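hi! just following up on the protien thing from before. the input was this:
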Amino acid sequence: SSGLERVYVYWSQVEPVRGRYDWRIVDDILAQLDGGEDVWITVCSSSGWATRSSTDFQPPSPALDDEAYVAFVSALVRRCAGRVRYWQCNNEPSNTDLLWAGTAAEYVHQLRLFAAAVRRADPSASVVLGGCGYDVLSSPPGSRERAFFDQLAAEGRDSFDLFDVHLYDDPEAIPDHIDTARGFMWAHGYAA
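and the predicted 3d structure came back as:
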């Protein structure tokens, strides 16, 4: 096969207890690949022991211990080195309380840790900024959602390689959404 395969991995699945890794989920994912596809893993910081909001699913939240988070991300990326091309730090963090239980500054802090860990463990991999989704794209200029994402684009600029735009909306709105995403990039000096 070929194309792009995107999967989610939750911290709670891989490290249910500090320092004890369970690679079954990750190994099952890797076993399903034939090598002809590009793989994108969205890593959600959802944990019963390691994050501010104790959960094994949604919403992910900031790590309680930066060293524990870096150790987890590093171990995960090393386990998948050469097999996974794209690594994303959570998904749509501006969709707070549903997909991220934290602030924009907390997300940027975690993104910086994530990017450094990914780049050390697999220098050929790319880091993807958490998706710019419907909550941002459908809100008016000046909204809380746009301010949140603007902060990510401004402060996290050296900690991601790809800007992810989620275009699930009325197809007629997509050109405006593309312009909004480009506006974030242009405002902070990114080539778009």
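The chain has a mean pLDDT of 94.
Strands lie at 3-10, 37-44, 86-89, 126-132, 162-165.
cheers
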